[in-house]
Amino acid sequence: MVEKVFSLTSELILIIDRTQWQNTNILMISVACKNRALPIYWKILDHKGASNLIEQQAVIRPVLRLLKRYKIIITADREFHSIFLSHWLKKIS
Q1: Distance separating alpha carbons of residues 14 and 32, to the nearest angstrom
Q2: What is the mean pLDDT of residues 1-7?
Q3: Which residues contact 64 (CB under 8 A, 6 or more apart)?
Q4: Helices assigned H by DSSP within 6-82
């Protein structure tokens, strides 16, 4: 889907978010497209509440590998404030 909608010169805005829907806790990455967030990868967490660094890396890593030819901007809310996540993202980019 990403390759059909975006050219390789496109700047992709990825949105990391976690949501609790009923008893399901979902950590996902979406791509911003025409004022919408289109989920492209997610993981069901086996606990309630916030995600940790290992879970965040497990969701981010495959997406970055898949989209490595694009310029990427990652956005997230306050749950993803970890300095360790920041250092990891800097190291792998």
Answers
A1: 6
A2: 67
A3: 72, 92, 93
A4: 53-66
Strand 36-45 to 71-76 pairing: unpaired
Instruction: Evaluate whether 53 touches 31 at the Cβ level (below 8 Å).
Output: no
For the whole model, what pTM was predicted? Answer: 0.86
Q: What does residue 35 show for φ and ψ, rounded to 5 degrees?
A: 60, 25
Distances (CA, A) of 13 to 2, 32, 36, 47, 61: 12, 5, 11, 28, 15
For residue 69, give both structure tokens: 């030819």
Rounded (10°) angle between helices 53-66 and 83-92: 20
**What's the average model confidence in pLDDT over 5-21?**
85
